[in-house]
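User: Here's a chain of 302 residues. Predict its fold as tokens.
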Amino acid sequence: MVAALTSDTMPAVRGRLTPCAPLAPLVWFKAGGAAEWLFEPADVADLSAFLRNLDPAVPVLALGLGSNLIVRDGGVPGVVIRLGKPFARVEVLNATTLRCGAGASGILVSSTARDGGIAGVEFLRSIPGTVGGFVRMNGGAYGREVKDVLVEAEVVLRSGERRTLPASELGYTYRHSMLPEGAVVIAATFRGEPGEPAAIQAEMDRIAAARGASQPLRSKTGGSTFKNPDGHKAWALVDQAGCRGKRLGDAQVSDKHTNFLLNVGQATSADIEALGEEVRAAVKAHSGVTLEWEIQRVGVQA
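Assistant: Prediction complete.
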């Protein structure tokens, strides 16, 4: 039984704790309900103390840039934790290694690596999200994944305990990790290799150009919708099933990249998720392949 989450029953914090906080402005689809509580910790100590003192039955969800997320229209019960600027620092440790706060973007990580002459993490430039999300989902693009460069991740467990987990303990598979339930990633150490900044920038430019040519970057979207099944490309299966441009209300399958769903107006999260399920059914009927969601869907239906 979860005690009522009122301002009187919530732990004291030094950061910002907001009840009934709208999440639509914080996610790329610009749709969905509110968080019962939104917590933006001042620092790691603030986060640890909050989780330690929060009723263990209260669910906790970490939110990054909201780029790979459908927040259902009924909102998210419990506490949504959003790591801001105090968690967005990136530091060059040596000629091959970076320590990155969980709130740092892929663009900041790859740019800092370039300035430090560290090659091998250019692919993070193309992933719309933060380090915390990359670590949790084994983010990847252009032939590389986080598991290829991660040394260790620092987390705060649901109990409030701070722990460092080597990559070997995270059980990485395709777009999946075995991070402990309720753990919040606070930092990660990545290892690349020595490189020339000009060559690193050229690779980043190549990736950015390829991404811009193939993906609807200026749309309200959630990035790649479905995982690539073994031996297949999700976008090709969606296209072959006749779903390019398919609409449900203001939710649409992208004409430019069919593994992207778009909010082309005032789509609800229910519209977006229902369209995704229609696409899955069409692909199953056409090819016999069952697509798995890559986008995380959280919260309750309205």
